[in-house]
Specification:
2 helices; mainly alpha
C-alpha cells in the first residue's frame, strides 16, 4: 500500500530591502557643518579683536588725558572745567560701550543667520541621505 505523503506548505520569508545610504552625502553634510562652525568662530574672533582694539584705544586715550591733567596746575582750574572733563569722560565711556554692544549684536546676527541657513540646508540634505 502506498502512503500519501503530505508536504508542508512552504513559507517564504518576506523580502526586506535595506534602505540605500548615501555615505558621500553624510560626509558632505558634515563638512559643510564644520565649515559653518569655522566661519562662525571667525566672526566671533574678529568681533573680539575689534572690541579689544576699541577698549585699548579708550584706555590709552584715558591715560593721555590723565597725564595732561596732572601736568597742568589743577588749582587754576574752575569747577566748571572739572565738570566738563567728567562729562566728556562719561560720554566717552558711553560711546565705547555702545560701539561694543553694536559690534556684539552685529556678530550675533551674522552667526545666527549663518547657523539658520546651515540648519535649513541640513534639513534638505537629510532628505537625500536615504535616497
Amino acid at each position: 500500500m502506498a502512503t500519501a505523503t503530505k508536504t508542508a506548505p512552504k513559507f517564504e520569508m518576506p523580502k526586506f530591502e535595506m534602505p540605500k545610504f548615501n555615505f558621500d552625502a553624510v560626509v558632505a553634510m558634515h563638512k559643510a557643518n564644520v565649515d559653518t562652525m569655522v566661519e562662525a568662530q571667525g566672526i566671533w574672533m574678529q568681533t573680539a579683536e575689534a572690541i579689544a582694539k576699541l577698549q585699548y584705544g579708550w584706555v590709552e586715550e584715558s591715560f593721555k588725558q590723565g597725564e595732561a591733567m596732572l601736568k597742568g596746575d589743577v588749582t587754576k582750574k574752575k569747577p566748571e572745567e572739572f565738570i566738563a572733563d567728567a562729562k566728556a569722560a562719561a560720554d566717552k565711556v558711553m560711546a565705547v560701550a555702545k560701539e561694543q554692544t553694536d559690534l556684539g549684536m552685529k556678530a550675533q546676527k551674522q552667526v545666527a543667520d549663518l547657523v539658520t541657513k546651515r540648519v535649513n540646508a541640513n534639513i534638505e540634505d537629510a532628505k537625500s541621505l536615504a535616497a
